[in-house]
Amino acid sequence: MPDSLHLLSLIAFSPLIGVLILLFVPKNQGFWIKTIAIITTLIPLGLSAWLYAAFNQQVAGMQFKEELSWIQVPLNHEVLNGITSFFFEFKYVMAVDGLSLPLVFLTALVASMAALASVYIKKRWKSYYILFLLLETGMFGVFMAQDLFLFFVFFEITIIPMFFLIGIWGYMDRERAANKFLIYNGVGSAIMLIAFLILVSTAGFGQISNETGTSIYYSGDISVITNHLFESADSPVNQADIEANPFYMGAGMKWTLFIMLLVAFGIKLPIFPFHTWMLKVHTEAPPSIVMIHSGILLKMGAFGLIRFGILLFPEQATAWATVLAVLGVVNILYGAILAFVQKDFKLVLAYSSISHMGIVLLGIAAFNTIGMEGAVFQLVSHGLISALMFLLVGAIYERTKTTMLDELGGLARTVPFISGILLVSGMASLGLPGLSGFISEFLVFVGLFQTAKILTVVGTLGVIFTAVYILRGVLGITYGPTKVLPEGIRDARLVEAIPMITLVAFIVVLGIYPAVLSEPLHQTVNGFDQFIHTIAKTGG
Predict the structure, then answer these.
(1) Rounded Cα distance, 102 and 48, in Å
(2) CB–CB of 264/83 below 8 Å?
(3) How far is CA 437 from the centre of its chain?
(4) Which of 21, 60, 184, 436 is most buried (CB neighbours < 10 A)?
(5) pLDDT digits (tens, 9 = 90+) for 68-116
(6) pLDDT tier at 248, thresholds 50, 70, 90
């Protein structure tokens, strides 16, 4: 595919086409606003499918790279000891590998399905869809950015629209949920920004020499930072660089940055005890926004942890493998046990997300190819399943005005289609063979068993607990005692059935033909594994 197509930029910024069009549509034209927004989300979905098909599965590195010098901020124009200039360089660098590729497609798919599910939004459609499309652009950028500052900009773009989408279109306690979301994610972003600034001012430090002199630069380009972090003993860092930059990164600073990044992305994941903000979002945000939050935004935390925490600091990460595994087990058991005692089905699913994100941590902590593949499988699988689950929650609430388990029951008699889809999603969540949840959990536990057998056995208890709380909730809603329901309750409309069927189809495809994900993923993850163990053995 020609590089001139700039496919990644087209995917990332195509939602802004819809934003521009919506600015000129009268706010009372609800039908056209919804139609334009939904059609707009289909553009990046089609482009992402094209990207997925064109991706070279035999290559481990970055592909479809787009690079240009974005902003240069001069720091010193005086000639000093042969140095002609100092400057900060902000680059626009976009690329994908086997880690980010499936997450880009997942983002496009879930966003399109959530746009259809936005049928439940009853007010201010124009503002809603403008913020929705801005959020989609931010999510794409996070998974494609290859410059720390560019990543941070896209990361922040996801926070601002999300704050308003929760605070304006959520339920009764929406403002508190939005504020909690902003505070926690703001703290995480601040920690991440400080870590990025340290990385840029140390490992991003370099020089360019030509006939006119020498320029000293500070860059957020991930490839530049990676090269400086992992200079081998045979080709040490230029002594002049160290003398010119007294803050060049040592072992203590690496440990500090690793812990900072673990906390920053752990808040987003979320890792216990940084999870309480997520519970409010899952219960108070509108269903379409929770589809995106649970299906995509939580995955940004795991993605950032792998891309920056693990791959930039593999020696520190492998030294903390047991700590990461323990955190994963805590997430699994804590989330599963509390999910079992909840009376609100939305809280059941919220704690379930905490538990399933613990499985991702276990896959990362295995530090082998099969475990890491399982972690990425779990990100994609849980993204599909959780999006489907919260779509169903919205459909049920729209008809019954409740999500309390003791007020729901016997829905299979009145809404058999919705109930059937709910059963399928429940079976996928508890890891039934033939569905995507089984593949991801199987790979994670097999990978972890090679390195931490006891923690693997303890972690598998979460699978049993998951089956208990999922069956309790799903069977109670569908086949429990019939409750008093509103008259004239109808089954799924076409606009609801389309995203339900689509998400179920992808869950089934991943379950029976996992190679569709494992083949583009394998070379990248295998490269990660070799790189991590090589650096860990040589001591960075």
Answers:
(1) 9
(2) no
(3) 17
(4) 436
(5) 888 777 665 555 555 666 667 788 999 999 999 999 999 999 999 999 9
(6) low
Question: Which own/partner contact pairs does 56-62 have at CB distance under 8 Å and 24+ positions apart?
Answer: 57/98, 57/519, 57/520, 57/522, 57/523, 58/523, 59/523, 60/97, 60/98, 60/523, 60/524, 60/526, 60/527, 61/97, 61/527, 62/95, 62/96, 62/97, 62/146
Q: At what angle do helices 453-479 and 345-366 cross, to 10 degrees?
A: 160
Task: Give residue 319's pLDDT band: very low, low, confident or very high (50, 70, 90).
Answer: very high
Tokens of 316: 């520190």
Query: pTM, whole model, 2 decimals?
Result: 0.93
CA 103 vs CA 140, 202, 296, 386: distances in Å:
9, 30, 8, 15
Tokens found for residue 291: 């589809």
Cα radius of gyration (the chain): 24
pLDDT tens per residue, range 385-424: 999 999 999 999 988 888 999 888 888 888 899 999 999 9
Beta carbons of 254 and 202 less than 8 angstroms apart: no
d(CA 265, CA 305): 6
- CA atoms within 13 Å, Cβ hemisphere of 479: 7
DSSP secondary structure string for all residues of 169-206: HS-TTHHHHHHHHHHHHHHHHHHHHHHHHHHHHHTTEE
Place of tokens 């593999």: 314
List the structure tokens of 511. Answer: 């379950």
pLDDT digits (tens, 9 = 90+) for 172-194: 889 999 999 999 999 999 999 99
State the Cα–Cα distance between residues 36 and 331, nearest whole angstrom: 40
